[in-house]
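Researcher: Next entry in the queue.
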Amino acid sequence: MNNLRSSIIIAIMTFFIAVTVSSVSQTQVQHVPLPMAVIILLIIIIVGVLADMVGVAATVAREEPFNARAAKKVFGAKCSLYLSKNGDKVASLMCDIIGDICGTISGAVGAVMAIKMVELYGFSNFFTSLLMIGFASALTVGGKAFFKYYGIKNSNEIIFLSGKFVAMLILFKEYLSNLFIKRRK
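Model: Structure for this entry, 185 residues:
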């Protein structure tokens, strides 16, 4: 029952995240030059591929190196330990939510780009759509395959780097909170 409840919550969260990110990215792609649209598409694909790598790394990372670093108060070690202890949740977030949303959005952005190329250059709608879908899919699947292997082989390093990133986000959030509190006084 707990699994069903968390799955429903994840599905609802994913719906709202996907709709929000997709509407923003598709709107932006429609109003930028084609080279910039390609860059936006590549960024979306790269985020999805890297998220998948972190998710895979979290499932195979060992806790022991992070315990030792956390005891020495190494920056990011506590967050890395949390990520490695909760590998299943991290994998669900990174692979299933972020990675899959990026994959879906890259297809939608590719479709908008195909329409734009048809309008600008008079290309065949059918072949342009096929090529864009093929291009986005090849980069996504090929990138995930490559970085999945890398994520397994270098899991502890990837999780430590991810832990440092999360720790920096936490510090930044605290800094902004303190700044906001000081301004209110």
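Model: The mean pLDDT is 89.
Researcher: Noted, moving on.
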